[in-house]
Request: fold
Amino acid sequence: MPEKEINGLDTDERETLSRGVGNQRSALLKTILLTGLLVGTLDGAAAVASFLLHTGGNPTRIFVYIASGVFGRDAFTAGNSMMWWGLAFHYFIATSWTALFFLMHQRCEFLSKNRVWNGIGYGFAIWLVMNLVVLPLSNVPALHRDPARVVEGVVILIGMVGLPVSFISSKYYGRTNVKNRH
Reply:
């Protein structure tokens, strides 16, 4: 005698469907985390290269500066632990931007149309939000905005975050053939 049917599915079919959804969520989470790690590394490496090129100083200062967003000016005198906090915050921010794009990609049909323009737009949007909203609301000391460095920062975010996230999310959603866009 067949198991009781609910919504036209027997117990075995419901369990199989449930496992498939769980596997799909697990694959999505893994892809987001790995992509966040990748773009965090690319962006961090570009920031270090830029810092070395322009100042010749110790690049750990980049991550101490990031930590100062939470810890304020104390980050600059608190020792090496602040560099690690800054590095953790950097990867958290990169992964958060990655997750946001993946979630938007799932819900916004236009994001599957042109990976290049979407990556450029997303990198520019990240720069705008970070520099005009997040940083002013944080505890970081204000920086002088040299126009050439602003352009360099935008280009880094486009090339190291926006484009890779756009291409990887397009590949992920193309591979999983997700049809349930909202």
